[in-house]
Write a structure and sequence with these properties.
7 helices; phosphatase activity; 194 residues; 38% helix; 6-stranded mixed beta sheet; PGM_Phosphatase; alpha/beta; 15% strand
Length: 194
C-alpha cells in the first residue's frame, strides 16, 4: 500500500539559531530573516499544492517557533493545523538553550570524541537517538492522509532518515534548510526550493 505524501517543513530562523544556541524544547522567536523564510516557504508550498490535487491536513510541533511559522504558512495555505507532540524538537535535557562552547565548559569531557552531528545525544538527561527514531517512526506510521508537517531541524533530519531507512550517521548529516521543504513520497525525499 502506498503511503500518503508528506511535505516536511522546518521553522524559520530564530534568534537562538542566529546565535548558535541549541534550542531543543525551549524556544526563541523568529528573526526578521526567519519571518521572510517562513513567508517564502508559504508561497513555495502554495504554488506546489496548486499542482497537487490531494487534500492535505497540517500537523505541527507545539513549540512557539513552529506555531509562528505555521501562522505564516496558513496565511497562504489556509488549512487548520493540529499540534502533535511527536513533531517536537529533540531535547538535550539540561543542555537545551546552550551553545556547544557552554556545554563544553559546564560539562567538561562530555563532548570529547563527538562530531558536529552526534553531540546532541551525549547529554546525560536528553533523549537518546533510539527514542527519537521511535517517535519519528510512530508519527510516520500514523500518517493516513496527505500531510503538511512543520517541525524542526534535528527532528526533521531523523524523520527523513527513518522514512528513507538511512543509518544514524547518514541521518545526522542530512541538510536542514529553512528556505525550502521536503516532499516525502514513494520512498523518495525531494527538496523543493527556489
Amino acid at each position: 500500500m502506498a503511503r500518503p505524501t508528506i511535505y516536511l517543513l522546518r521553522h524559520g530562523e530564530t534568534v537562538w539559531n542566529s546565535l548558535g544556541r541549541f534550542q531543543g524544547q525551549l524556544d526563541s522567536p523568529l528573526t526578521q530573516r526567519g519571518i521572510e523564510q517562513a513567508d517564502h516557504v508559504a508561497h513555495l508550498l502554495r504554488d506546489t499544492l496548486c499542482n497537487d490535487d490531494q487534500l492535505f491536513q497540517m500537523q505541527v510541533s507545539p513549540l512557539g517557533r513552529v506555531r509562528q511559522t505555521a501562522g505564516r504558512v496558513q496565511a497562504k495555505v489556509p488549512l487548520q493545523s493540529v499540534e502533535d507532540d511527536r513533531l517536537v524538537e529533540v531535547t538535550t535535557g539540561s543542555w537545551d538553550g546552550m551553545t556547544r562552547f557552554e556545554i563544553d565548559n559546564e560539562f567538561p569531557g562530555n563532548l570529547d570524541g563527538s562530531n558536529a552531528f552526534d553531540w546532541y545525544f551525549r547529554a546525560p538527561d536528553g533523549e537518546s537517538f533510539d527514542e527519537v527514531c521511535k517517535r519519528a517512526t510512530s508519527w510516520i506510521s500514523d500518517v493516513r492522509h496527505p500531510t503538511i508537517a512543520i517541525s524542526h531541524g534535528l527532528f526533521g533530519r531523523i524523520l527523513r532518515g527513518v522514512f528513507l531507512g538511512l543509518l544514524k550517521q547518514e541521518m545526522l548529516e542530512l541538510p536542514v534548510p529553512q528556505d525550502g521543504f521536503y516532499r516525502l513520497n514513494d520512498g523518495r525525499c525531494e527538496l523543493i526550493t527556489v
